[in-house]
């Protein structure tokens, strides 16, 4: 939520740089304060929308998702058909240095890429509120992940087509830069606004889904009891939504976009490894009576690759990685504390 809000402000300020300069404080400091204030206000806005009930929240989310997919598809098609880019920007050969530094950067990059797919399982969080869940949950997982893969690959291909790789460094609002290169300066502002608007969908989805997890944990006696309270009028876990919004706002105030991305990427990188390890445990408890496709090689390769990414990311960004590890480990005593008090 915090990372999406910061990215939204970055794209919006690329389109309208004057938003960050009010003339009240020294320029760099003022820009930072305005960015963080805007990001917090966006979180507050969507927290309020989803606190008003599931129907308005779902309507907003579905509308934003459809608009986002349409905008991304339109940008991709227009960029390739009408843009003045070049596939020569894609180097035919990359020479890796003999040192360890480049491998650390590769590991961190892969962690950020994994973060892009972190919502693939999110529809399961709404299982009790989905019609015909036996059919629709697996279908949503497959269709959602497939669509994200296609859009993600085409968008990144378009970026490389538009921009020489050396010019991408330290640019967060990459889509705006790509639009300017492909279609001229005027389109940079238009696309930056469109991408900023599209980020509303991600922000809204996280705010919608997260409280359902805290609610379920609290119902099982494994989280703060107030997060399981459902508002009588709106029928949503109101305090859970407000609790989440408050934490996200604090993260905006104390972290940068890449710090949050690394912190969350590392945290989220731990749990899929644990989940896949669970496959081996399930196989021992409930033998399938025949070899599953890819078992045991596929889960073993996944675990090995995941551990390698975490290790390389840790070496590259030790501070954010240590904070992520501490956050995850803090869950262990909290789990036993809640279990004992339940």
Provide a brief overview of the structure:
The protein has 342 residues and is mainly alpha-helical. The chain has eleven helices and no strands.
What is the element layout, followed by pairings?
Layout: H1 2-15, H2 27-51, H3 54-82, H4 101-116, H5 133-162, H6 174-183, H7 185-219, H8 238-254, H9 257-285, H10 297-316, H11 318-341
Helix pairs in contact: 1-2, 1-7, 1-8, 1-9, 2-7, 2-8, 3-5, 3-7, 4-9, 4-10, 5-6, 6-7, 7-8, 9-10, 9-11, 10-11
Q: Which features characterize this protein?
A:
single chain, 342 residues, mainly alpha, globular
Word description of this protein:
- It is a single chain.
- The chain is mostly helical and 342 residues long.
- Helices cover 73% and strands 0% of the residues.
- It has helices spanning 2-15, 27-51, 54-82, 101-116, 133-162, 174-183, 185-219, 238-254, 257-285, 297-316, 318-341.
- Helix 9 packs across helix 11 (318-341).
Biggest sheet statistics? none
What is the multimeric organization of the chains shown?
A: single chain
Compressed to H and E, one letter per element, the order equals HHHHHHHHHHH
Number of distinct beta strands:
0
What is the strand content?
A: under 5%
Instruction: State the shape.
Output: globular
Class by alpha and beta content: mainly alpha
Task: Calculate the terminal CA-CA distance, rounded to whole Å.
Answer: 30 Å
Provide the residue-averaged pLDDT.
85
């Amino acid at each position: 939520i915090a990372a999406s809000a910061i990215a939204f402000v970055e794209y919006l300020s690329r389109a309208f740089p004057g938003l960050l300069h009010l003339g009240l404080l020294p320029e760099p400091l003022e820009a930072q304060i305005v960015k963080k204030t805007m990001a917090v206000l966006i979180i507050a806005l969507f927290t309020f929308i989803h606190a008003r009930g599931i129907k308005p929240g779902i309507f907003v989310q579905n509308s934003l998702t459809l608009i986002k997919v349409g905008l991304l598809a339109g940008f991709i098609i227009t960029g390739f058909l009408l843009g003045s880019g070049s596939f020569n920007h894609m180097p035919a050969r990359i020479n890796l240095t003999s040192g360890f530094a480049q491998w650390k950067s590769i590991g961190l990059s892969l962690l950020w890429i994994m973060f892009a797919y972190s919502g693939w399982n999110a529809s399961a969080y709404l299982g009790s509120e989905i019609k015909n869940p036996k059919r629709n949950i697996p279908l949503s997982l497959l269709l959602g992940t497939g669509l994200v893969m296609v859009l993600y690959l085409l968008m990144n291909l378009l970026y490389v087509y538009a921009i020489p790789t050396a010019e991408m460094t330290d640019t967060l609002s990459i889509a705006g830069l790509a639009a300017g290169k492909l279609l001229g300066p005027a389109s940079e502002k238009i696309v930056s606004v469109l991408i900023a608007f599209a980020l509303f969908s991600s922000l809204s989805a996280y705010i919608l889904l997260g409280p359902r997890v805290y609610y379920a944990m609290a119902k099982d006696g494994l989280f703060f009891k107030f997060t399981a309270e459902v508002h009588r009028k709106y029928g949503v876990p109101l305090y859970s939504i407000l609790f989440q919004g408050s934490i996200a706002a604090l993260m905006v105030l104390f972290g940068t976009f890449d710090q949050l991305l690394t912190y969350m990427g590392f945290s989220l990188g731990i749990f899929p490894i644990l989940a896949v390890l669970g496959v081996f445990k399930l196989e021992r408890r409930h033998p399938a009576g025949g070899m599953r496709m890819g078992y045991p090689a596929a889960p073993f390769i996944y675990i090995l690759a995941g551990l390698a990414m975490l290790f390389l990311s840790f070496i590259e960004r030790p501070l954010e990685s240590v904070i992520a590890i501490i956050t995850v480990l803090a869950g262990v005593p909290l789990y036993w504390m809640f279990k004992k008090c339940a």
